[in-house]
Bifunctional chorismate mutase/prephenate dehydratase (Thiomicrorhabdus sediminis), 363 residues
Amino acid sequence: MTTEQQQLTDIRNQIDEIDRQIQVLIGERAKCAQKVADIKTQGGKVDAVFYRPEREAQVLRAVKERNDSVLPDESMAKLFREIMSACLALEQPVTVAYLGPEGSYSHASVLKQFGSSVVAHPVSTIEAVFEAVEKGEANYGLVPVENSSEGVVKSSQNELMRTRLKVSGEVEMEIHHCLMSQSLEHAQIKKVVAHQQALGQCEQWIKNHLPGAEVEAVESNALAAKMAQADATLAAIASEEAAQLYQLNILDRHIEDYHDNNTKFWVVGKDITQPSGLDKTSLIISIHNKAGALLDVLECFSKRNINMTRIISRPSTEKTWDYVFFIDVIGHKDDANLKEALDEVETKSAFYKLLGSFPVSPL
């Protein structure tokens, strides 16, 4: 055996021993997860909450803070995300409804937030995501709320106005679109299909590269990929994962008009999330029709040095030329300073709805 072969053999033996130790420790962690489940269900409890987003956020932040290895912080956190997902599945399988079918960006965001041990439950519309959670068919739902280039997702906004569900988590995904088809040539493409948001994000690219093609909006990008699988004259806009899943040829990558293209997703459910130490709170308000009304509301936050990260207006469905505002601020609703601000906002608003508080995502 050469010196190089001996060195490699020694290192591989070290790796084998380290893997053995890692496996033993993961097994010990799994036992602890089972003990947690036993404690939560003792006495026949049936309403125990197993998924605690604030606890998971704290664990993942700690993983990143203590990471001093050659692995990047994000990679280390993703490894622990999967360990936590498998352990949670031992306590209670978690079902999450999302805009399907499999292979959509919503599906990818479910896996990012909950790990691959989640029970992903695809439905056909955003409205059906909320309905599945409200009816108890899923523990949580995950919906897109805003894209960095195309703005808000109106159907999600509509449901957030209507529902009694709470926002309990936030996921941000980089979105890089691919053009895919059974065909291998652009000349054979007669129609491009995708979700309306994706078509908007790729509008200029389509005009420049497929000027003669018809454009059709469908319920999801993954559905578009399924349609393209059945018709070689169609091209879908979707993810690389969708191309692999539906066995399509990728004709072009990164076709989004703005390459800094991100979509924000929210987790919705029936549970109220406890403080994690670094949180956001979201609310919806409408204001009285008088001079300075919006300024009066915003001063409730500014005078307490509360950072507002987002404010979006949209027409009210109740009254012509009236508007509602979606507002995000830093902090948890139970933080004394923010609680005081929210109480004051409610007194100054014509309509007030607290959507929930949730951890700032560590991933």
User: Anything to note?
Assistant: The CA atoms of residues 74 and 363 lie 7 Å apart. The first strand starts at residue 95 and ends at 99. The chain has twelve helices and 15 strands. The chain has a mean pLDDT of 93.
